[in-house]
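FORM 7B: Structural annotation worksheet

SECTION A. Query
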Amino acid sequence: MPSPLPDGPIDTLGFLDAVLAGPDSLAVASADPVDGLPAATAIDHVVISAGTGLAPVGALASSLVASTATVPVVDVDAGLPAFVGPRSLVLVVGDGVPDGRGIVAAGSTGAHAVEIPVEHVDGLQRTAVPTALVMVLRVLEQLGHHAEVESSVAAAVAQLDRRRTELTGTSSPAARLARRVGRTLPLVYGSDPVTGAIAQRWKQQVNLGAKTASFANALPGLGADELAGWGQHGDMTRQVFSLIVLRHDHETAGTDARMARVYDLDDEVVHERHVIDAEGDGALAQALDLVFWGDVFSHHLAQELEIDPGPTDVVA
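SECTION B. Predicted structure
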């Protein structure tokens, strides 16, 4: 295992620099309309297929537009559903490759297919998730299934500027959390589908960056099965797992009570519990705040474990 260099962290691909530069590209992504879209009246459902590293984009987008979209917005991670046809819009995000053939696979079904290219640092496509998400939301806004993306992005950029200053300071909460988690395994819980999708993002970044196991879940599914699994082996699990809980201001009524019950049941079976509260004006700002938090945390966890967060040779 490599050791940290005397003059700085291990980060051969510039992972942290790419993450910290991400907020600056968001406004550009939201400003220009996407060409080649069909008429909204020609579409019965939207399917999002994202490339390697961008997988959280579909789940995040579908969660964020759940209350505004008047057609189903579906995230897929392998192949295309059988219902895809001439009244479907397939958004192929980045190097999205449904069935291994990208735009060709979508076109072969007779569906409308639009490719959304996403610029990224070589080898670090996963750092472009926020930009890709904004571009997908822009498409949904053009189709009438979302609104005010540009103003939402402006609020997100303002929040990420604040968070970037906080997390890169000498007393960075992300670095502090990484030290607390150490060699335990991060168990990341979301309070609803939105933070559940972001919990999966945290898991992805810990897996790919720190090269360590991590697990994610969210309410309501969390309360339907996973909690039952903590009924035994608490003497072992409290040495192995650190619980990280993601919260935001747009949760449904009753979430506080449900999460309090989760805490009651889990606190005895995990090493520690850490709650990350989103900040920012609006749902998008808070979602991207939590995504950014997790990306920076994964870098610091990699440093704690003396791991380079960039290369993912086993995936390649």
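SECTION C. Observations
The chain has two domains: 32-147, 173-304. Residues 1-6 have pLDDT under 50 and may be disordered.

SECTION D. Sign-off
Analyst initials: ____
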